[in-house]
Design a protein that fits this description.
four-stranded parallel β-sheet, binds iron/sulfur cluster
């Protein structure tokens, strides 16, 4: 009975206190219904966000969240990931770190029963959620220059051994992608972690002109991943790749549908922070793809209902903009919406995790082809093609670029992006260190919104 509140409540962004109030309306059966690794005994994760604040995610008291039950479920699941990975290990599952390729190697890992892939670099949000520089300072002590990208938190997490269990295997992709992260992976290697290095090839500007050898080369790299996994699991059944690709595609199409519904609705049905979390879920389903798929299905239903009723979380006159490069600090997504903007396009450097994987060709070839659509391995022009189209058809009125200190592709690409997007106002800002958002930065975003208006 009580849970009907969620069905009738007006969509809006609410804070931690509101969530704690509303959480009382969630039925006990509902809490037990959602669990990870299909285990109702200890796999429960539906909790109010305040629980995670008590565990140290201090920024949550500043953030605002969507008030749907689907979003509450999503946040409980996302914040529970660290616990989930340790549980996986306790249960005898294999925990596999996949680093650097953002989206493709996990599809291979998930073809093996009881193997859980995860991306250690996703820890880059942790210093912000926790409003703590401990991981960043530790990375500096371990030899990374202070002016290095926030993904250096990954090195500290490997060093501290408290954020995820020791991986059974580590696949590290390097090459034509992010040099900064390659250095971080190298330092993880120096800590004594054994890795299988994979090489990412460069992408030509025009998709039509790929030399076939790029595709063949990636296929041979994926064969190496497969063989290493066979060595670990003593299972060699390539038919497992087919359901794994199908699941990845189901997730990709759902995420795309939620984005399109949200972008095109007259009133934004879902906040940008939740949307970004969904987009990044495509990488590996936050370490339980089945449960994540179910959550995303639920969010899709919620969004579709809101669109049908013409209701949402932002004002109708919010100005549509695109966002380039993800912000390490989630609070910025809230701030931008508070200034009267809405996000209707993104380029979060994970295009390879968003595109459909072909299902009618040999699985490794299909994966290689999808990976060749990756954001960071081709030209800047290719990267922002969709944004330029949105500007041309007047759907996108402005562009926000968030730069990370020490991130070499930001330093090299941002000016180019500004030049290529000269037909629309562009604001480029640097994401400050945790707890570092100043009045000056808020004013710049507000002034940008005012200019657009
Ligand atoms: S933010 Fe940029 S520099 Fe840092 S890991 Fe990501 S791609 Fe590399």
């Amino acid at each position: 009975m009580k849970s009907t509140w969620f069905e009738v409540a007006r969509p809006q962004k609410i804070d931690l206190n509101d969530w704690s109030q509303h959480f009382r309306l969630v039925r006990d059966e509902q809490i037990k219904e959602f669990n990870y690794y299909h285990n109702p005994e200890w796999g429960i994760y539906l909790s109010p966000p305040a629980t995670f604040m008590v565990y140290g995610a201090r920024e949550l008291k500043r953030l605002k969240f969507d008030n749907s039950l689907a979003s509450l479920r999503m946040w409980g699941f996302v914040f529970n990931e660290s616990e989930r990975l340790f549980r996986a290990k306790q249960m005898g599952k294999r925990v596999i770190a996949t680093m650097g390729d953002l989206g493709t190697v996990p599809v291979i890992i998930m073809a093996f029963p009881n193997c859980i892939p995860f991306y250690p670099e996703c820890i880059w949000w942790t210093p912000f959620f926790k409003e703590s520089t401990v991981l960043l300072d530790t990375a500096t002590e371990l030899g990374i220059p202070e002016a290095a990208c926030f993904s250096k938190a990954t090195l500290a997490a490997f060093h501290k051994k408290a954020y995820f269990p020791k991986p059974d295997l580590i696949f590290a992709s390097t090459g034509a992608s992010c040099d900064d992260y390659s250095c971080i992976m190298q330092l993880v290697n120096d800590l004594g972690y054994e890795m299988l290095w994979l090489e990412i090839p460069f992408r030509r500007h025009n998709d039509e002109q790929y030399p076939d050898r790029f595709e063949e080369y990636l296929i041979s790299e994926y064969e190496r991943v497969w063989n290493k996994m066979v060595e670990l699991t003593v299972i060699n059944d390539k038919t497992g790749l087919i359901p794994s690709i199908k699941k990845a595609n189901r997730l990709r199409s759902l995420a795309e549908r939620i984005k399109q519904l949200t972008y095109e609705a007259p009133i934004t049905p879902l906040p940008a922070l939740e949307l970004m979390t969904i987009e990044f879920g495509n990488l590996y389903g936050y370490a339980d793809l089945d449960e994540w798929l179910d959550i995303v299905e639920m969010i899709n239903e919620t969004v579709a209902k809101r669109v049908e009723k013409g209701i949402g979380v932002l004002k109708q006159n919010a100005i549509p903009i695109a966002w380039i490069t993800p912000s390490a600090d989630p609070l910025l997504l809230n701030l931008v919406e508070d200034c009267g903007l809405r996000i209707v396009g993104t380029e979060y450097v994970i295009n390879q995790a968003l595109v459909p994987i072909e299902e009618n060709v040999e699985p490794f070839r299909a994966l290689a082809r999808s990976f060749m659509k990756a954001s960071l391995i081709g030209s800047t022009q290719e990267r922002i093609k969709r944004i330029i189209e949105g500007v041309k058809n007047e759907r996108i009125k402005g562009v926000l670029v968030t730069n990370m200190l020490g991130c070499s592709h930001c330093a090299m690409e941002t000016r180019l992006i500004e030049k290529m997007l000269s037909k629309v106002p562009v604001l480029s800002i640097d994401v400050p260190v945790p707890f570092g958002i100043t009045e000056q930065l808020r004013t710049r975003i507000a002034a940008f919104a005012e200019t657009l208006r």
